[in-house]
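Memo to structure team: turn this sequence into C-alpha cells by end of day. - J.P.
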Amino acid sequence: FMSGLVFSFIPTASDIGSDGYLASRFIDGDFYRKSVPNETYPSVKLCGEPVSRTVNEVRNGSEWIDSKTEYHFVCFEQDPIFGLITLGLIFLPGVMCIDYYYRELLVKLRLELGCSMGCLGLFKLLIVILLIFFCCCAFPIQIMSIKLACL
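Reply from structure team:
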C-alpha cells in the first residue's frame, strides 16, 4: 500500500496539481521580477518605474575599470497561450486514447457505420462522440481514480 501511495499516487497527484496551478498562473497572470540593463528596455515598457537598481563595478588593482548597472522591475504579465498549451498537455493522454475509446464504444453500442444507419444509429453515434469527449476531458480524474483503486 505504502509503495503504491509513495511511488504512484502522490507523484501523479502532485504532477497534475502543479501543472494545473501553472496553467492558472499563466492564464490569470502573475507578478514577475525582471532585471534589465537599462530603464527603456522593451520588455519593461509597461511595468512602470524600477523598484531597485544594482551597480556592479570591477576593480583592476587601484582603478575601477568596468561598471554595469542593472534595473529591477516587478511586472504583471498574462500568457494565455502558454496556459492553454499547459492545459493541453494535461489532457493530451486522454486525446491519445480517442481511437481506443471510439472502438470500444462502437462495439459496446453495436454500432456499424454506413449509409443505412437510420435515426437510432445517428443518435448512438452522437452518444459515442459525446462520451469520447467526456472521457478525454476526464482523463486526469480517471488516472487518479485508477491509481487510488490500485492501492
